[in-house]
Amino acid sequence: MTSERSLGGVVLAGGYSTRFGESDKAVADLAGTPMIRRVVDRLATVTDDLVVNCRDDQLEAIRAALAGSDLEPRYATDPVPDRGPLAGIQVGLEAVDREYTAVVACDMPFVDPALLETLHDRACGRDGAVVRLEDGWYQTTQAVYRADAMAEACAETLDSEDKRIVAALERIDIVEVGENDLEGVSERTFEGIDTQEALAEAERRMRR
Ligand SMILES: Nc1nc2c(ncn2[C@@H]2O[C@H](COP(=O)(O)OP(=O)(O)OP(=O)(O)O)[C@@H](O)[C@H]2O)c(=O)[nH]1
Ligand SMILES: [Mg+2]
Fold it and tell me: 3-207 has which fold?
């Protein structure tokens, strides 16, 4: 990997996992490995500067879950907790030291590194590459952004009336990637684990 092709990574973990129950899904065990560690180890294959965004009160458990992982991450904690994923994206992207950076949620343990490389290719010269599914939904938490442009768009969006992530995307020059462009990418890449039921189902499928 040459330096100009170097990709950063941000793992978003600052949410309260309310649908998951009492515990933090970031560090939940999936078939013997904490979910966030699965995400970090997959990101480590395509990135060389990695930032984990979380709250101060999560640091100890997340550090323990990531001890000895394939790429030692840096941590950027939220100055104000519970401001939503857009605030987490901003904090992470401000801390990362690469022009282009993959942003991935901690609850997407099957993220396909090949997708992130494709998005990196497509993002070059633009402000980012985001998959838009057939239902119109943007996969904003498994996307590649030009870090400074997206961080600024997040800040502006959080200061305005419409605080949705798509409002931030409208402020920058992104490439939309369709589902048809995802040949060779794992079908499970966008699977998110929001509930205990989803975790149990994922575990069942991994055992098969
Ligand atoms: N920094 C930060 N990250 C967040 C926040 N809310 C969600 N996230 C992250 O954004 C990603 C997607 O969010 P969700 O799947 O809704 O996670 P969540 O909010 O923890 O879970 P629920 O409470 O069940 O919605 C996850 O990686 C979360 O950690 C937040 O308020 N601040
Ligand atoms: Mg949420």
Answer: Spore Coat Polysaccharide Biosynthesis Protein SpsA; Chain A (3.90.550)
